[in-house]
Amino acid sequence: MRRLLPASLTGRLVVAVVALTALVALLVGTSVTLVMRSYLTDRLDQQLTESVGRARADLLRNGFGDDDRRPPPGQSDGLLSLITDGQRSIATYIDTEGDLLAVPSRVQAELVDTPSDGAVHHHDLPKYGSYRAVAVTEDGLTTVVALPTRDVDETIASLLWWEVLLGLAATVAAGLAGRAIVRHQLRPLREVAQAAHEVTELPLSSGKVDMDVRLPERLTDPATEVGAVGDSLNHLLDHVATSLDARHASEQQLRRFLADASHELRTPLATIAGYAELSRRTPDDATELDQAMRKVESEASRMSGLVEDMLLLARLDAGRPLEREPVDLTLLVMEALDDARVVDAERTWRLDLPGEPVGTVGDEQRLHQVVTNLLGNATRHTPPGTTVTAGVRAEGDRAVVTVHDDGPGVPAPLQRTIFERFSRGDSSRTRASGGAGLGLSLVRAIAESHGGSASLHSVPGDTTFTVTLPLHR
Asked: Of 36 and 2, which is predicted with more confidence?
């Protein structure tokens, strides 16, 4: 059955409209035909019943065996009349010219067999065709009157032909009009398909993709079927565009990461290669050899730290699970600040702790690295004499760790990328020793892996790094 239907939705809808129209035309035609036949037959039966009295009087006037028969007044052509007393019978037939004709005996015999119940009966009479007959017995005489159904049959046949012609015309008109209407109504759907086709032609495999294909507002009304499809398509395109932008940003970030990592590793490798060459050329100079080895160890340590940081970021990106143990953040911040005070005596270090311990659940070593990186960031990027305050507090169901300084602040352009990998400060936050730019990116990655976040608020004289973590009481 499916193979007989068109493949397109337009074709299927047109076929459905045509089929429905044809079915309605068939039902209407059948109903009209049945009602009309019933009406015409009832009129014929009424006319037949009214003819019985006149036919009986005429037949009795002519008498049995009288050949001087005259047509009865007011009777229609085709009328068959018969009167019988059981032994003799008189039967007449009025032809189309109004003359009375004799009726064959076999026709008379069939008419005599009509039940005398006053009801109308149907007969198919030889030579005469289809008739409706009624028989009435009165005073020992039975009168039978029959009228042809020719007019009814011809009227019904003519009606059927007109119904067939009008039904075909209505079906063809419904097909043409339905095709035009369906195509017009489905035009928005074709526009939606065209928009989707335009998207398929875009180079989405790589690079920056400007996906500006969207459906107009008139095609995105959720109250209509096509509008619901258009609205869903626009939301899908928005999601795809966002995903492509995120993918492109990730690709760009990966390229920058590889380039910056290569640059960071190239410098210590070049230094190690240079001092190795120097030690090879001066094997007998103990002082030069010792200085070269110390420098090689220093650069190797720097390179090892960089590799460890990149490896940790890769593990966090891969979603590898961390240790989940209760951690006392108050004690952790105190220890990290004590370490910073010992290493850097040029700045003022302060604690801002609550009256009760604040804890979380996580990897104590990584959380200690978060606080150490924030304090180290303050050491490198603030001038001597800066006051650095580390604090912990509980806010609702979150534990909040803050590192505040009153230094020159982070430049506004840098604040947007401060937590990205290999992001570095400029001269407004001069540092004593260079870093790889992975410290704050590790802070954010570790915080997010614990279900928290990292943020920055900075203006000159008021810079605060904030790390939020789930609170564990």
From this structure: 36
